[in-house]
Amino acid sequence: xxxxxxxxxxxxxxxxxxxxxxxxxxxxxxxxxxxxxxxxxxxxxxxxxxxxxxxxxxxxxxxxxxxxxxxxxxxxxxxxxxxxxxxxxxxxxxxxxxxxxxxxxxxxxxxxxxxxxxxxxxxxxxxxxxxxxxxxxxxxxxxxxxxxxxxxxxxxxxxxxxxxxxxxxxxxxxxxxxxxxxxxxxxxxxxxxxxxxxxxxxxxxxxxxxxxxxxxxxxxxxxxxxxxxxxxxxxxxxxxxxxxxxxxxxxxxxxxxxxxxxxxxxxxxxxxxxxxxxxxxxxxxxxxxxxxxxxxxxxxxxxxxxxxxxxxxxxxxxxxxxxxxxxxxxxxxxxxxx
Length: 338
What we know:
CATH class: Alpha Beta
CATH superfamily: P-loop containing nucleotide triphosphate hydrolases
Strand content: 5-15%
Order of helices and strands: EHEHHHEEHHHEHEHHEHHEHH
Radius of gyration: 20 Å
Distance between the termini: 19 Å
């Protein structure tokens, strides 16, 4: 039995994805679900949210096998095999599989093995490499008996993200209210369907290969990539971007999501705030975010000692309610019992 993998993905950056995953991870842990957070974005911003610079520098400089996601898969670039992951315990029921800026060098390896995985023979090595992220994440989850794996990836449609999505059971899509997010959504739906179909061909090819008989215990991900909904950033009042410009884009999201991602007909007159596929509208929380970063904790755990006083204290409680509501909704979509 594998641990469910939920990946937050949009090929347009700047939509608050990393902060969202960081806070959801802490919220799920507070709800007594054991969580492994996997940072598979080569920029490693999520790792920087959990660990201070000194801790990250030690991880990257020592280059111990299994210390980061890259150190787990690096042996595959030679003649070695996956190194078991070493997790960072960052809180009660919360563990981090750290990211690594060196992960970008694994892109070429994954690209080269993609066509090789459709050959007639010697399939084990290509399939092992292509599913290495899934193998590592499942090892990590098994190590701590995790209930859920949350994954952060970069905003692109490259070979690393393809392999991450092959390892993914569920996909949540964070969006901004702008043309670029909508265009990203238009690209994302067809790409997910294409990757899913191409992976099924590889699974079928594997099932009828001699390699499968030689490696009967080798498990492979299904590559379900089931979309569970989208999250939309709340409008921030800016002089150069009036509310009506925000509304122009945000109210187009329900139709584009249905058509591009789900291949459904748009619902006439459906507004984003009424759309059942909208998991949440994420508030800006304004000055709470830097306060949380300064104190290295989620904003809903800030106290008066951290500087959360007056209106900030009320905003902390609002954030706690918002993220708890979102965690419950996501748990329901992925059949995770709280």
